[in-house]
Specification:
Blueprint lengths: L8 H14 L5 H10 L15 H9 L8 E4 L6 H8 L3 E4 L1
Helix pairs in contact: 1-2
């Protein structure tokens, strides 16, 4: 079960993103979100702590085995999808 995110978190993240865009550094807010979370995943709006359901379904339905194969997870967040792929034997690169 997911823990409830703190009140106003979405608004704070939106403000950080808006400020970063105004500062001509549109991706800077990601680092701020992670650093201000101090390891508390409830402070990261996209943290689900589980593999995306579509990826999990695909891995399960196709009984996918990744030995000898590589996978790249773009925008990996906390790495849940990367971990699921690694568990199936893929050499995973997170970005």
């Amino acid at each position: 079960m997911f823990e409830k995110q703190p009140e106003g978190l979405q608004q704070r993240v939106k403000e950080l993103a808006t400020q970063a865009i105004e500062d001509s550094n549109p991706t800077a807010w990601f680092d701020v979100v992670y650093s201000k979370s101090n390891g508390d995943f409830t402070q990261i709006p996209w943290a689900k702590l589980t593999c995306h359901p579509y990826l999990q379904d695909w891995l399960t339905i196709h009984d996918t085995q990744g030995e000898g194969l590589s996978a790249l997870v773009i925008g990996c967040g906390l790495g849940d999808d990367a971990e699921a792929l690694a568990d199936k034997g893929f050499q995973v690169t997170k970005n």
